[in-house]
Amino acid sequence: MLLSCLLVSCAKGLDTPARNGHVVGCVFVRSGINPTPSPVGVNTRVLATPTGGRASQVWATEAGRDGCFAFDLPPGTYELTATADTQNPGGDQATPEDVTVRVGIEIRADLYINYP
Question: What is the largest CA-CA distance in the chain?
Answer without folding.
Answer: 71
